[in-house]
């Protein structure tokens, strides 16, 4: 089929098909003229091509991946469908999470539609798990200790009870009281260090405050104890104010229970041990004072009262006057 060619000079002529793509001279102006190849005629448009556009349907983009389980669109490189839970790599539908209670509100910026619902459920579950972890941390006690440790502790308690039953009652109570005070001292020191270490992860200034705050409180309570003992001519009664030692650590631990939850019951236990230990020492001294008042049939030089025995076991001045109940003193 001849190719129609038009030159810039206005001349027009028909060239043969074999000249397509070649350059020839214009018959009129002799200028070189390139003959273009003939273009193929466009395919006829089907008469029903625009019917789907009229009702709002559009052709789906074939480049967007679809879920094999439910057919929903999935983001590129996605592994899990948020609509039905189908795992593309495993080739099966995963078990979905059932959230109890009211449906959680959509998280701001979490997306639209199914993605927003999935984000809200994940965030709500994470918050619930965090609360459960805090409760588990607070409720930690003896759980997790190996059986041999529990058996050794039980055996030590039984042995201690047997030994205490073989010595005078006042000496047993006095020794038990001092033992509890010693345990309370080490336990209080441990809790103090734990709270300082946990506070350092929150704010270094908070750790410094716990260190100096607890130190200043201990000095104040010790001074107050000496003043009360001097006023009452007794050491044991004034020493009860020292049970408040550890209050700074307790307040900080309760304010940051997510970091120091396990220390809170230990601090309460330290205060309780200190109170019980002082009470046992007080009872031992009262028993000793009552025994001295009654006396016995033996000569004075052969008689050893419970308080004197306690004095021999614990070489610390115990009483200022063995004959006066009001002047009973301990740990001076």
Automatic annotation (TrEMBL):
Keywords: Membrane, Transmembrane, Transmembrane helix. The keyword Transmembrane helix applies. The chain crosses the membrane at residues 147-167, 173-193, 205-228, 234-255, 267-291. This is Zinc-ribbon domain-containing protein. It comes from Anatilimnocola aggregata.
């Amino acid at each position: 089929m001849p190719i129609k060619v038009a030159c810039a000079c206005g001349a027009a002529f028909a060239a043969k098909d074999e000249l397509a793509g070649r350059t020839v001279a214009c018959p009129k102006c002799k200028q070189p003229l390139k003959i273009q190849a003939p273009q193929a005629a466009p395919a006829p448009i089907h008469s029903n091509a625009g019917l789907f556009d009229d009702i709002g349907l559009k052709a789906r983009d074939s480049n967007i991946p679809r879920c094999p389980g439910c057919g929903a669109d999935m983001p590129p490189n996605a592994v899990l469908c948020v609509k039905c839970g189908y795992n593309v790599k495993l080739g099966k539908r995963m078990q979905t999470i059932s959230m109890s209670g009211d449906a959680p509100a959509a998280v701001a910026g979490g997306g639209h539609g199914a993605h927003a619902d999935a984000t809200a459920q994940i965030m709500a579950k994470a918050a619930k798990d965090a609360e459960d972890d805090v409760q588990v941390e607070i409720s930690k006690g003896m759980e997790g200790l190996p059986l041999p440790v529990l058996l050794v502790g039980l055996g030590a308690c039984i042995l201690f009870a047997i030994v205490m039953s073989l010595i005078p009652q006042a000496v047993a109570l006095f020794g038990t009281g001092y033992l509890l005070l010693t345990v309370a001292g080490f336990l209080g020191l441990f809790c103090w260090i734990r709270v300082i270490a946990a506070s350092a992860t929150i704010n270094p200034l908070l750790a410094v405050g716990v260190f100096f705050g607890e130190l200043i409180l201990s000095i104040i309570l010790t001074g107050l104890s000496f003043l009360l003992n001097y006023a009452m001519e007794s050491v044991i009664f004034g020493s009860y104010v020292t049970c408040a030692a550890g209050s700074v650590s307790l307040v900080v631990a309760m304010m940051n229970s997510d970091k120091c939850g396990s220390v809170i019951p230990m601090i309460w236990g330290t205060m309780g041990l200190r109170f019980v230990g002082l009470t046992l020492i007080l009872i031992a001294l009262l028993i000793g004072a009552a025994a001295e008042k009654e006396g016995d049939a033996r000569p004075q030089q052969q008689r050893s009262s419970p308080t004197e025995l306690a004095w021999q076991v614990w070489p610390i001045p115990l009483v200022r006057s063995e004959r006066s109940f009001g002047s009973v003193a301990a740990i001076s």
